[in-house]
Amino acid sequence: MLALMTWIGSFLHSVFAFIIILVPLVVFHEYGHFVFARIFGVKAEIFSIGFGPRLWGKQMGETEFRLSAIPMGGYVKLLGEDREAELSPEDQKRSLHRQAPWKRFFIFSGGPLFNFILAVFIFMVILVVGEPQLASVVGRVVQGSVAEQAGFRSGDQIVAVAGNPVKKFEEVGQALNENPNKKLVFRVIHPHATSPNDIEVMTSSQLGLSMYGESTPVGEVDGLLAMGRATQVGVSDATTSVGKLGIETGDQISRFNSQPVSNWEEMEARYAALQAGQTFPIEYTKGKISESPEANRAKGPSKAITLTKPHPSKGLGEDFGLYSSELFVEKPVPGSPAEVAGVRSGDRLVGVGNKTVQSFFELKNSVQKSGETEGKVSLKWERSGKLYHAVIIPTMTVGRDPLLNKTTVYTVGVVPMLVLAEPVTYIERVLNPFKLVYKATDRMITFSWRNLVLLHKMAVGQVSVGNLGGPIMIGKIAGESMTRGLIAFLTNMAVFSVGLGVLNILPVPVLDGGHLLLLGVESIRGKPLSMKQMEIIQGVGLLLILALMGVAFKNDLARLLYL
After folding, report:
1. pLDDT tens column, 213-225
2. CA dihedral defined by 464, 465, 466, 467, rounded to 10 degrees?
């Protein structure tokens, strides 16, 4: 019952978000047609938001503004759309098809044009308010990874990739994606350094998706992560140094060697810099496995312990039993293979097969690979200083990737205590009016071009039509963006506005682009098409739109079933 109520709540949230994001786009689109019709003296009889039965209406001047039952678009009914309708001489002067071709061109293109203008305006608002951006600062370098061997360090600021300046981590990721199995030179500034260093690394390749949804090899640097780990502690053995001093799994470290720390990587770097035999204090707040670091920090004053770095040192975990909570089990999923095998809350996951894992992402990939190749997982874990081992048959979950291709995910059924630290971010803001207009327009043109390229690739079969989404997908995306804040919601609104504009300029009869195409044919022929020809063309266009809508709805239903 609870699951049903949750689903209903999520569905209603998506419906609300769908209406909130779509209605302004439809209103502005139809207003574009309306404005140009009024400019050229064409009578607008009806301005409707939605299709189907009229729910509400009000006559304002010569136009009835109405709200209709199906909120999937809207329309402006102009005088003279029906060529065979009998009109008075006065009305004929104000009918649509009695206007010069150049006037009709602006009336037909007014809707898409206003969508593009709206997108530019929204992008300008976003840039003035300021967009939070993930800075090109390395959050974590996984121990033993390719990134560590190449010379990357946690906290490195990447300033250029292959000679191209970068400021956002998104730009770093894009450079990697475009260069699989290639040597790349990264210019980085190490923490506390004043001058940059060049790091050359060979990227690996994995199957991913291009920006157009094509299945394609993408590059990555193993172990180079944007997000570090929070300072939440994992202690699997109460007889270790920190266990005897009272630190428990779930506690939160706030200061290391009398300096505040914001992530585990920072703490590891400070420990590595200490001399053997040097003592150092650690301040921490008590916590629980099931509570967030924020909740644990609010519990009260911090406590402190003092440790001494041994010689030789093998790291905080080996030296004192002080680990990040990343690989600790918050709880096994009830009835899961891991629970049946004996994994319990508070256990530390150590490895899969003969491989010791250093991160939860590595653990997840190892389980997936073992499930795919062997159909079983040899899992190792630690509890109270004792190692355990079991061969587990993982759970197979069949799903769909973004292209709706069938996928199989292998899991053992544990909920990790992985808590990510806050990444380094900055606010990207543009206040110069000329630069503001330029950047907003550039974004609109970029998204428009990407839409056109995507549609072309779909038409020629280079990209799956599984990328298409209908109202369910739009509602889901809109709902998720509302939960992420104003900037995310406005960004999606601008992108959807561009998409609506591009869709409507397609040369498909019944769309604005179809009207423009027929207007071009009329201009070349010197006379309009006959009513019979128009009916055939409009019928074909309607079938194309219905087929497109059918594919989109089918994809929506598939995503509901599998995702």
Report:
1. 667 888 999 999 9
2. 90
